[in-house]
Automatic annotation (TrEMBL):
Keyword Manganese appears in the UniProt entry: yes
Organism: Nocardia terrae
Name of this protein: NAD(+) diphosphatase
E.C. number: 3.6.1.22
One GO term of the biological process aspect: NAD+ catabolic process
The organism's place on the tree of life at top rank: Bacteria
Length: 309
């Protein structure tokens, strides 16, 4: 059995952002800080302005003279307050983290800023009414909660999901699957959302059985990464399965899956990451295995396993 560990921190977990939680409830400090604050503007597609591997931050007062309830407080850069707001009027060199993250080569500060902003703004878009009393809600605590007309406070949701690298007993082969909506040849780790009342380990067992019909054992935790599309937390695992057990696709999410050798995976990694902004990799007719982009924890897990031996 392979005993590998992650050899790098997943890209979206490398944030250097100071979240400054102590300021969220300090209305006076937030109001005063707006005058010198920097603002990240993001449209409804999750696109922002990018320049030289960093997100473009603008003076908050260029957007509004005073702090608006639509803006969410992200944290501090030194003494400078950082905010984000949904703004569909932005123009220029636009890109989004999910589609272009593999080739943008953003710095750790920018990825942390984007991950937080995307998750928060996505939650606000769908939390306009209280799930408890049905009345309208307004943003409170710098955008880190919403309070209903009846006084009920709600907080941003995070949906846990497991993602698992499955090896054979020797640890030298890995099972990868392809979803129906993915391009031909693009394979990744198997993943799924944790259900109510379910442990993470049980979720790994259930999801893999549902998706490819395989029983797994020796489940071991590797690490985690935020995945704000729209608001998930990916929890990485490794497990062992028997390659002789037939593969069956029960729920229709996975349409094909195969066991790949370490050499095959290493060759695919050397060829580059697939992404919607990387057509050269996608169009290569010689590739029989494409792997996910670098912002996914799947990439980090696969790279760590491939580096073994």
């Amino acid at each position: 059995m392979s005993g590998f560990q992650l050899n790098a921190i997943p890209v979206l977990s490398r944030t250097s952002l100071d979240r400054a939680e102590h300021l969220r409830s300090d209305e006076q400090a937030l109001k005063e800080g707006w005058a010198q604050a920097k603002l990240l503007r993001m449209n409804r597609r999750g696109q922002v302005r990018i320049d030289g591997g960093a997100v473009v931050l603008e003076a908050a007062t260029d957007f509004a003279d005073e702090r608006t309830l639509e803006a969410v407080f992200l944290g501090l850069d030194g003494d400078i307050h950082l905010w984000a707001v949904r703004d569909n009027t932005i123009e220029g060199n636009l890109a989004d983290l999910r589609a272009h993250g593999a080739t943008l080569e953003l710095d750790d500060f920018s990825t942390g800023l984007l991950s937080t902003a995307i998750a928060l703004l996505n939650w606000h878009d769908k939390a306009r009414y209280s799930s408890t009393d049905g009345t309208a809600t307004v943003a409170t605590n710098g955008g880190w909660s919403r309070t209903s007309e009846a006084g009920h406070e709600e907080f941003p949701r995070t949906d846990p999901a497991v993602i698992c690298l499955i090896t054979d007993e020797s640890g030298d082969r890995v099972l990868l699957g392809r979803q129906n909506s993915w391009p031909e040849g693009l394979f990744s780790l198997l993943a799924g959302f944790v259900e109510a009342g379910e442990s993470l380990e049980r979720c790994v067992e259930r999801e893999i059985k549902e998706e490819v019909g395989v029983d797994v054992r020796d489940i071991r935790y590797l690490g985690s990464q935020p995945w704000p599309f729209p608001r998930s937390l990916m929890l990485g695992f490794t497990a062992v399965a028997d390659p002789e057990q037939p593969l069956t696709f029960h729920d229709g999410e996975i349409v094909e899956a195969y066991w790949f050798t370490r050499d095959e995976v290493r060759e695919a990694l050397a060829a580059g990451a697939w992404g919607r902004d990387n057509t050269e990799v996608l169009q290569s007719t010689e590739r029989k295995l494409l792997l996910p982009g670098s912002i996914s924890i799947a990439r980090t897990i696969v790279e760590s396993w491939a580096a073994e031996g």
